[in-house]
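Posting for a labmate who doesn't have an account.
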Amino acid sequence: MSEGITGGAEMIRLRQSIETQMRRKILEAIEVVLEEELTAALGTGRYERGDARRGYRNGHQRRRITTVAGAQTLDVPRGRVVDPDGSSREFRSQALPRYARRTREVDEAILGAYLAGANTRRIRKALAPLLGDEHLSKSAVSRVASRLKELFRRWSERDLSKERYAILFLDGFHLKVRMARRVVSVPVLAVLGVSEDGTKQLVALTLAASEAGAHWSSRVEDLQRRGLEAPVLILSDGHAGLRKAIELWPEAQVQRCTWHKWQNLVGHCPVHARRELKCDYDRIVRAEDGMVAREAYASFQAKWRTLCPAVARSLEEAGEQLLTFYAFPKAMWRALRTTNSLENLNREFRRRTQTQASFSTEDAGVTLLFGLVAFGQIQLRKIAGHHHVSELLAPVVASAA
């Protein structure tokens, strides 16, 4: 028994020794980085002379910071840099900003816990092995989270003239937000793009008063104003506001979501006839090619105008836009039939925010959703048939040249 206790104590001491050495090595590495950064700013190393010298060293300053290995005390080198005009300024480290008390890795850990929905108490508990006895107040978490708000603002206003998307998915979902002293469900307008290499990227995220045409049109106009070119293909459901907004890109082809249209058809069909309806509808949207699909479409209309006119009228409302995907490479059909790429993102948004009864401000909700994607909490995969996406953009690029 005593041997087991002794062995356990030795393991603890060994682990503590390894951790101590690791902390020391990390500390030394940071100090080396800071020394090299100052050397680059001054043009010469310590005790060196030469014509390239652009200033002088001025001792060290001890600073207490929190790193990935816990709380550390650093000797931060100081110096003055002489500019070409003869004026001098104090050296400012980019690796360790002047008033930083935590390294970027620690801030990322805090932000990751915040995005996962943890409150300050849970964050402090989760990061206790990392932060040690360092104080992590509510305001500290807020300051780190404010970085996310600024990132979202810059992202929302960025220049889009250098971004090119072959495909855009447009859809909306609802989020509970406290507005005018009441919790209301408001729509979030989301735009997902597919870039040249087939990667899905979040293009825009906006909280709106409604999904009315004016709001969607305003969203599209903003994207155009910031330089976004029309995509080759736009996928959306049949929302009237969306249909109106899409008209602002007349050169783009439009694919109506076949799943949303199916939901509309089911709503018009008696329960006993839905299995038959599904078989007839699948012949349209899961055909071997576009010609077979159009034949199935014509047969569907002829049959259901008699059986259930409301079903036929609902299908006719979408028209040829249900079949646009057949003009694209077959490997992409599964991805282009529906807005599932954006629906999956929206579903993940809902899952990540379901623990929130409501968001305290309008900005808080969309900022959090942006952060989930920007910091990799939600991963966006490449679209099916992604190797064909560059082919879709090739004619556009050639005509521009």
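Reply:
Got it, the structure tokens are right above this. The CA atoms of residues 218 and 245 lie 8 Å apart.
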